Amino acid sequence: QLIQIGKFYELWHEPDTPSRQQVYSQAELLIESSMRSGPLEATPPIEQVASLLDMRITSPGKRSLLQMGFPIYSLTNHLSTLLDKGWTVIVIDELVTGRSGPKQRAVSQVYSPCCNLEDCSELSYVLSIYFSQDDLLGITLFSAMNGHSIMFPVSWADRDKVARLLISYRIREIVIWANLEVGPEILINKIYNLLIGWNLFPSEPN
Question: For the domain 2-111, what is the CATH code?
Fold first, then answer.
């Protein structure tokens, strides 16, 4: 979330705050589980964004909050960088109410690699993968630009056949749902091997 604070957009993070959302770095995911020194550690989004945008993270005052930001006028350039790296960006702007008191804010835009309607130069697709408990994969391809969608099931044993179909589509975003009673490490490795086999995950960090 990029929150407008005056003439800047800012990103905040409070360390050691429990969250259901886990963000792993691409470099960490590319390390085989047998070669890792320990379990996967989620990297705070603010650290990944700061690295991508080559910005510093500060801690204002004596508070534990971490903060980074940039001027409003540079949003377009930074947005392009984040979308190219697969990030979904929520922009929260200040509302002009004409009233005194605390600023009111609301979500003004949601951008993702496949759902950026301000840039329709290429037809992009979202790939949704559903992992069921009976070794079936539910596959959905959807384009927000023209509404075209394809849905079909495939068994885990036949998963390699899907790769030939996916070659015909420009996939910019992947959404994964899992209904498996396995640990996160096993699930991540299963997803990792599937995406590598479908040529949807790079062999090296980019």
Answer: 3.40.1170.10
